Please model this.
Amino acid sequence: MKMICFNWKMNGNKKLINEYSKLSLPSGVRCIMFPPSVYLSYLNSCIDAGWLIGAQACHASNSGAFTGSVSATMLADLNVQYVLVGHSERRDIEGNDFLRSSIESAESSGLQPILCVGEALSERQFVDEVLEKQLSILSSCKSGEIIVAYEPRWAIGTGLTPEVNELRDVFLKIRSLILKFTTRQPDKILLLYGGSLSNSNFDKLLSTDGIDGALVGGAGLNIDNVREMTKC
Ligand code: PGA
Model:
C-alpha cells in the first residue's frame, strides 16, 4: 500500500479535522485527506505533519468570473498538494475538455492530479471503451507521476464492490491504457481503487495485484474506520 486518500465529499466539520490530526500515521504510506475546500485554512492551522492535503476538484482556469469555483493556484496557496479530477459526482457537468484543462491547471500550479475513472452500471459491457476515453486525457499530462483512481460508478456509495479477479483484470487494462497515452516508467504509475471501501473489505480488495492504494469515501467520516485503515 503506497497511498490512502479520504474524500469527505460535502461532509465533515472542524471536529473531524481535529480527530484526523490526532491520528498517528504509518511511515512510508502517503495518507491524504480531501475535506471540503472551505476547511483548508483551518486544516492548515492544526494539521499534523504526517497528513498530506488534497482538494476535491479545481477549475480549469486559474482565475476569472466563475462564481463559486476554486482554482488550482488558490489551492496551492493553501498548501494543497493533490487534487481529484473527474470524480464521477462531478464528471457529468465537467466533461473531458474541462478535465484536461483542470489537469493542466493543477500541474502548472504544482499540484499532483489524481484522475478518477470508472464505468456506470449500464456501461459495464463497454468498460474498456469507457476507460480508454476517460484515460485519453492523460496524453497531455506532465507530472512525474500518473495517479489514477478506478471507481466504478455502480460501486460508489452502494455497498457493492467488484470481485477481486474483476479488479485485477481492470487494473491490468488501466495500466496498459496509461502506457498507451503516456511514457512513464511503471513505478511512476499509481493505481487506486475506490467505491464502497469499508473495514470489512479493505484488506481483501487492497491486496489485489496491481493496486497501489485506496480512495475512501463514506467510511472516512468515522474516525475509527480511518484509524483501522491507516494501520497497514
Ligand atoms: P464511497 O465513495 O467509499 O462512499 O463509495 C468513494 C468515492 O466516491 O470516492
Remarks:
- The two ends are 8 Å apart (CA to CA).
